Every structure is written in structure tokens, then in C-alpha cells.
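Chapter review: from sequence to fold.
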Amino acid sequence: VSGFAKATLWLLGVLLILSNLGVNITSLVAGLGIGGIAIAFALQNILGDLFSSFAIYFDKPFQVGDFIVVGESAGTVEKIGIKTTRIRSSTGEELIISNQELTSTRIKNYKRLSERRSIFTLGVLYETSSEKLRKIPEIIKDIIESQKNTRFDRVHFKAFADSSLNFEVSFYVTSSDYKEFMDTRSE
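The C-alpha cell string follows.
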């Protein structure tokens, strides 16, 4: 940036000297303007990525080490560069995504997740007595509350399915760790 500023100041100085010496610089200034437009079009994508990297730097939607999902891609941010961001996917490959694409799409940042919600459907046979059906929500609530790092949300009868009476169960695991979430859900 400082080199560009110095060159611009020198160019303006030379133009002023030529103008004072009586040289007609109108066509020269017009040529520089057209050249500037051509250069701006050539640098449009690079400048877009540069401004996007500034947006990422100042806004901080993610940082190195965060696990993010961008469209169909997911992984841990390894490096945020001027033009691209490098992400290591969970299967091991390195994804290189332009910063302009990152600032123009929706990003899910799982690093800032404080708890995870689990919703699943539980089916019971149609032969289940109405007395047992009424007890199911309380039994499920007791099971969820007996687990550490959980917060019970709800259990409701959901639907009459083809071969079962379905209940929808919802609870939260109060940890951002995915392995702990899955372990708790399995329990």
C-alpha cells in the first residue's frame, strides 16, 4: 500500500510539473483514467477477496481452530489467508475456500456452541396398554434427567404410524463436545 501511495504521489508530481511547463496533459490523464478502470476490472476478484479477508479479520465469524460448516463442506479452520481460508475436513482432506465465498454464504460455527439439542422419535407397539402409554413421558423424562450434562425439554405423543405409536423426545446436552453429545444420546 505504501509503494502504491508513493507511486501515485510521484505521478501527480510529474503531471503537475509537465502542466506547468505548458505540456497538454489532458490526453495523458484520460489515458491514465482508462488504464485505471482496466486495472480495476482485472483486480476485481483479488480486491473482493482482500476486502473479504478484512471482513473476516475484523468481524471474526470464525477463528483458527473453530469447527465450521460452509454449504456442503465442514472442517476445522487451519489458516485464514488474504485470498483463501484453509479448512481440514473431518475425513482428512484440506479444503481451500475463497474468502469472498465465505463472506457471501451462511457459516455454521460449532466452536461457539454451548449445548446441543437432540430430537428423536420413539415407537411403541399398538398393543401397549393405555396405562403404560400414559407413563412413557415420565419414564423418558426420568431417564434423561438421570444422565449428567442433560436438560430435559419435552416428550409428546406424535403420530399413529403404520406399526407403532410414536412419541417425539427432545432434550439438550449441555456440552459442545460432539463425542460427549453422542455418548449421552446413546445412554
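Two observations follow directly from the output. DSSP finds six helices and eight strands in the chain. The mean pLDDT is 88.
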